[in-house]
């Protein structure tokens, strides 16, 4: 990549960094608000990572801006071990701690719904209804008609256009059983997607153009909720593939890939960028609820086990386990970043 191209893309790279930072800061804001509501002392709320650039000391919380404009964090009293202060995180009831920990991912899910809804309100959204059947496509040869509502594909319920396109992509040219609603009559079709290649990338099409609607904001939020649900299903579908050894290195992207993709969406305009932010917000929420030490999911698992058993785990031991988990996550991030550089997804 030439220096001239890099310079031209600097504004979009900055927008990408800011967009990702907004998602992480919003996540941490969830922890911050619930910590305050539950009477936990928050020692620090930082925007960014690394060396502190400047900050403001509040009544009890220090608000800092740090050097690296990626992410942020909330530091609570007693988060890493035993503490005698009654306002320490370690000394709060399990259910209170659970609300604090779960708030970050929940905030990301809520933000994703709002962002999807915003895009749909302004731009409209494709829905799994047949808006147009293309000539010479697989759909018209099968008998599918304009106005058909797609209900299921390979016995999987279709709530969004994303659901439909995902199944088409996963089947890679193999026949797909469709169930559609045509004026109240349920009809079944067997359709074989056609392989097409563009810019060196293969995809599969069925010759259907989705109906595009421009919903009210209330309807947009409902569609946003459905889109979040669709993204969750896709993500756990990927985990299933990875567990079975069917995922490839091109299915995984790290910070470099996220930055590249975010920059491309920023270049495409504000609505595409907001849409991609919604997708990343869902991924950030899912990543954080994984039951791994140092992640919110690790804490959630521990707190649920304590609530079930009625026993409290040693806070110092939990703190050490989380520290080891944090180091492991940093190592994983380094490895994924190296993979991004050596074997880029895009």
TrEMBL record:
<dbReference type="Pfam" id="PF02163">
    <property type="entry name" value="Peptidase_M50"/>
</dbReference>
<keyword id="KW-0472">Membrane</keyword>
<keyword id="KW-0479">Metal-binding</keyword>
<dbReference type="InterPro" id="IPR036034">
    <property type="entry name" value="PDZ_sf"/>
</dbReference>
<dbReference type="InterPro" id="IPR001478">
    <property type="entry name" value="PDZ"/>
</dbReference>
<keyword id="KW-0378">Hydrolase</keyword>
<keyword id="KW-0862">Zinc</keyword>
<feature type="domain" description="PDZ">
    <location>
        <begin position="112"/>
        <end position="184"/>
    </location>
</feature>
<dbReference type="GO" id="GO:0004222">
    <property type="term" value="F:metalloendopeptidase activity"/>
</dbReference>
<feature type="transmembrane region" description="Helical">
    <location>
        <begin position="12"/>
        <end position="34"/>
    </location>
</feature>
<keyword id="KW-1133">Transmembrane helix</keyword>
<dbReference type="GO" id="GO:0016020">
    <property type="term" value="C:membrane"/>
</dbReference>
<feature type="transmembrane region" description="Helical">
    <location>
        <begin position="321"/>
        <end position="338"/>
    </location>
</feature>
<protein>
    <recommendedName>
        <fullName>Zinc metalloprotease</fullName>
        <ecNumber>3.4.24.-</ecNumber>
    </recommendedName>
</protein>
<keyword id="KW-0482">Metalloprotease</keyword>
<feature type="transmembrane region" description="Helical">
    <location>
        <begin position="268"/>
        <end position="286"/>
    </location>
</feature>
<comment type="similarity">
    <text>Belongs to the peptidase M50B family.</text>
</comment>
<dbReference type="InterPro" id="IPR004387">
    <property type="entry name" value="Pept_M50_Zn"/>
</dbReference>
<dbReference type="InterPro" id="IPR008915">
    <property type="entry name" value="Peptidase_M50"/>
</dbReference>
<feature type="transmembrane region" description="Helical">
    <location>
        <begin position="98"/>
        <end position="120"/>
    </location>
</feature>
<keyword id="KW-0812">Transmembrane</keyword>
<dbReference type="GO" id="GO:0006508">
    <property type="term" value="P:proteolysis"/>
</dbReference>
<dbReference type="GO" id="GO:0046872">
    <property type="term" value="F:metal ion binding"/>
</dbReference>
<keyword id="KW-0645">Protease</keyword>
